[in-house]
Structures are given as C-alpha cells and as structure tokens.
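[#protein-structures] MJ: dropping Amino acid permease here for a structure pass
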Amino acid sequence: MKNKKMGFWTVLALTLTATIGSSLLVTFNQVFMMVGNNPLLMILAWIIGGIIILPETFLMVEPAISFQENGTTYSWLRRANWKVMSFWFGWVLTLFVSATAIASSCLALSTIIMSMAKSDNIYLLKTISVLILLLIGGTQIFLKNSSQISQIVFLVIKALPILFVMILALIYGSTDGLLSNKEMNQGLGQAYISSSLLIPAITMTMFSYSGTEVPTYVAGEIKNPEKTTPKVIICGVIVVISIYLIYGIALLSLASSGDEMANGNQGLLAFSKLPYWAKMTFNILAILLFIGSINAFLLYQTRLIYKMAEEKDLSKPFLKTSKWSNQPYMAMLLLMGCAIVYIIFNQIVELLAYFSLAVSALKILMTTNVVYLRLKETSYKKVYKNWLFWIFVTFAYLTCILTLIGSMMLMLSTTSMTDIWKPILVILFVILIVPIGFLKFYLQEKYLKKESIES
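AK: finished. structure tokens for Amino acid permease:
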C-alpha cells in the first residue's frame, strides 16, 4: 500500500509546529535589546527577518523535489561529489548549530527556574542546565517509546505560552507604556541615518525562523510538490511573522518599561502589571515548552550525525543504537557533550551569535551547491524559470552576507575583551574543519589504494 501523500494544510501545520516554539522565547528579549529597546525597530526587525529567509528557502525546493533524500544539503553536497565540503557542512551543523540550539534552550530553561527560585548564582544555573540536558537525553536513550510519547505531549503544549501571553494582553494590556507614541518614536532619528541597530537584531531572528524550510525536507511526501511546497513556504512565513508580531505587540502592551521587556529571559516575572499567578502560570508553561524543545532537538538533530557515520564522515561506533529505545545513543552523547561545553563557557546571547555565524556560512555553501546541481545534474528538476531562479540566488547571497555581518557585529557587541578568545576560537575552528576534511579524504584514499594493491 502506498503512503498517503500530504496536502497543503497538513504540510502547513507541520511547518508551523516545527518553527514556532522555544526559539521565540529565547530570542524575543534579545532582539529588543539589540535595537536599543525601541519597540518599532523590534517589530521591523521581525518583519524583515521573516521576509529575507524566503529566497534561500525557495532555492531548497528544486533539489528537495529532485532527489528526495534524507540529510538535505549534506546529501546534495555528496551528490555533487563535494566530499570535503559535505564533511565541513556536517561538522559545522553539528558543532555550531545543533549544539548551540540545545545549549541555548537548556540555559533559557534554567534561567526561568532560577528566577522563580529568586537566585542568580551563575554556577548553579549552569549546573541545572547540564543536569536538565542529561536527564532529557537519558530518557531518550533508556526509556522505551520515549520519543513518540514525548513528541505527542510536546505538540499539545507547544502553543500554550504564546496563547497565554495573548490572553493576558487582552486582559491587562494597555498602550500607555512601550506602545505609546513617545516610546515607539524613541531613537528613530539615529535609525534613519544608520541601519547598524537593525542588522544584528535581524540576524538574531534567524534562530526563531529556523523551521520554515521544513516543507523541503518532506517534499517527496507532498501531493503535487512543485506547486504545493512554494505555497506552503510563503503561507508559513506569513503566518509565523503574523504570530510573532501579535506576540510582540502583546508583550509590549504588558511591559511598563524597556527594562521589563529586556528581562524577558526570566519569563514574565519582571512584568509589574501582571498578578503573581499569571507570571507563574506562564513560566510553568514555558518550562514545559523548553523540555519539549530540548527533547525534539535531541531526537531529530542526532539523525545527521547518524547519516555522517553512514557516509564514513564519522567512525562506526556512532551507528550504535540503544537496545531500549533504538535511538542512536552515541550520536546523542556526542551532541550532548558539545552542548555541555557551550553551557559551561557561554551565555545565551553568545550562543545565538555562534548559531547565526554558522547558519550564514552554511547557507552560502547551500546556495552555491544548488546552483551547481541545477547546472550540472541531469536528474535535477527545474521548478522555476531561469530569471526567477537567479533572482532567488542573488537575494539568497545578499541575505547570507547581511546575516554574516550581523553575526560578526553580535559577537563584537556581546563579548568583553577578556572573553574575546571565545569567538576567535569558534571562527578558527570553523575554518580548521576544511583542512581536516582534506586530510581525512587523502588518508582514506591512500588506505583504499593500499588495500586494493594488497588484494
């Protein structure tokens, strides 16, 4: 029996589920601080951030429909025989995207717990973050059917914190605070002269918009994918932008000052307008959401590590699966180990900068790879006319350059001189993976030649 193909609404629901969640709670107050606590600039950053991801996402449609492989860009790079770059892509995605996303969520969750306990001990915060990760990872490895059960629960509770804020805004919100004309117009004169405030803020929104590319991952399971996939991407981005804007306006209506909004990493505890029960209810819902998100990150992002082991970019032990849950436990332990290093040595804003830098670099490679496959691969299906495809390519490169600059600005603005070694080390390590890849394939080929001669 053939598997039933997914229609427009099913794929749209899948996209929204994958996109909207804990990333919004992690980044919203950070974006607000990046624009100098200006509400109007924050709203503008979220709108622009959503729009600029469209060209690069549209570019993923053609190869996704053409090849219908797990691993998407990683698999496309190997199809183009770019072995070194696929090695680089896989490791950068694992070390600087997946691991930072997990570490950010763990730190955000422990920050809310610490604020509820009225403690600001940084060592205790990081210890709780590590323990949370080990506990959730342990359930994935040792509990039978834990992934299926946890994902169902996660789907149910995912939208609750956002919906709760919107309801609170209807009851307690007002336009006297941050939504007043005085606050909205604050500092706009400087913004007209320079866009420097917006660039890092727009870059930071990337963390919350990751997930809108999900239709390209399941293109082989969609009815009429050539037409449905681009429609879902457009509608998905519009819906996500709308939800983020409504959520942002709701928060602005509840905050009495910029300081309250900037302290959003504590949940709603800093919001003086709200009664205690409302603050605690939101924080409990947010804790459940973060637990679900960390669980989902571990479940899905270990799949690339497993794929890399299959392609021999990692050693065979990473193909081992748990006898209890059938999860790739060695891949999960590697990802958890990387995340723990980030938790110990970094703050959330630093992790968002690393995430943005890595994603920008990976998207430049992805765009170049798609262009190559369209020109060279005989089985490539062209969905777009040539002129439209090259427009997407041009804007995708421009977006990557913008976010690359933004991530550099984030690193410089959030790192003190005593900690400047952290971003430098990250950048050097990203670059160093390339010669390691060349050395790896050189030694592999040398070994295979020696083996063939001996046989």
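MJ: nice. The radius of gyration is 22 Å.
AK: one more thing. The chain has a mean pLDDT of 83.
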